[in-house]
Amino acid sequence: AYFDQEGVVEKEQHSAAEDAAKAKRGTKLNHEDAHTWRFEDRDKKEGEEEDAEEEVKVKEEEKFAQSFDEMMTRRMNHADKVKIGFFMESECPGCRLYSRKVLAELMKEPEFNNMVEVSVYPFGNGKLTGDEIACQHGPEECVGNKVIACMQKYKRITDTDKMGFLPGLKCLMESEQPPELVFPHCTAQGGIEYEPVRDCVYGEEGKRLVLEAARATESLVPALEYSPWITINGKPCRDAAWDLFP
Fold it and tell me: Burial of 193 by CB count in 10 Å (0-12 exposed, 13-18 middle, 19+ buried)?
């Protein structure tokens, strides 16, 4: 009876030990499940956050795409314009061709016109000694250079006058007559007031303007190699300038 009773006790103790072990295992499993759920909740939350961030990003990209044209138009009209320098001389055949077939035609295109700021420097391959200029193609070219400089002074390209003096320049470059004879006609054709240009050409102002063009040309880095010489934001285009030929 003792052994039977002891066996019962041992059995009961063994059963209690098994229950305790099961409870412990259950607690462990519950802890593991809780960790798993926490990881799943965290992953789900992170996934939702990533989705939300992606949605915001997509919306921002869509908003940017919609406003891109408007933004570029504002920039082209008001700031960050591309600066084109046209270094030329009035009797140079290549300069004459570029003036009338490339520059004047491109400037008629609103999209191009809105994004550029054009400055013409009539000196080219001339020689500057002190304040004296010797033009490559002779005295007629010196007069033509003054005409161009004075037309530019009195009919500037602006936001309200997109072509400025360029129609007058084109007229001058198309004519086979000497600049001194044709510029009264070209000022009229270009909508430029004649008297101020005339006084400029034959006065001290014309001399000062071509001297400024000469000094700007001689200060180029790298130096001018030939005419016409086109720069974009100060950097030479060389032969690539002709790629703009319409």
Answer: exposed
